[in-house]
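S1.2 Input.
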Amino acid sequence: MHPKRVLIFRHTTGEGPGYFATFLETHSVPYDLIKIDAGDPVPASAEGAAGLCFMGGPMSVNDDLPWIPPVLALIRDAVARDIPVIGHCLGGQLMSKALGGTVIRNPVKEIGWGQVKVTDGAAKPWLGDTEQFEAFHWHVETFSIPQGAIRILASEHCDNQAFVLGPHLGMQCHVEMTEAMIRLWCEQWAEENAAPSASVLTTAQIFDEMEERIRRMRNFSDRLYRHWISGLAR
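S1.3 Output.
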């Protein structure tokens, strides 16, 4: 009997699963990539999946896109079945909206490296004794914490960086980044029309010690992902 598979949802070609897929492969967790950007259909039910993962994307969860309502319904179905869901940036916003939260513009754009701080003891199973770490950011909007969920991460420029609800983890930050993804995104930096600031780093600042910063972030990606896969449906 084949083990159940994690379904990874990609919303745009440039924001693939990155290190998340590498982590699953390293831990022998099978997965399927559902390419929303290529017209792949959204499953009507989460039944039979080990877990659901939603990646990032430049669109808003408030946009009138045909795939958003079925994705929100799928997230609610998975939560009702205790099938773990994890979301990265847009993915976390989809989770929040599906669970009754709201997604609005953040006070500032957040682009590049930035510290996220642990805000609640509920983070302990996910991050151990970690108090803060440097994550990658690239977002304009922000989610509210859905009812019943617990905020576990915040940053100086965005109050809600991650929430947990049982086995589910919704993140605003990007812990899945690879060097190739960062370089690709930085090709679009100018299109953001954002002046460099405390919350918006230049590409030179983003590239500074990039390999080492990615390596350090991996420690925390691993912890988050390891706890998440411990809850996968078998």
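S1.4 Remarks. The domain at 5-230 is CATH 3.40.50.880 (Rossmann fold).
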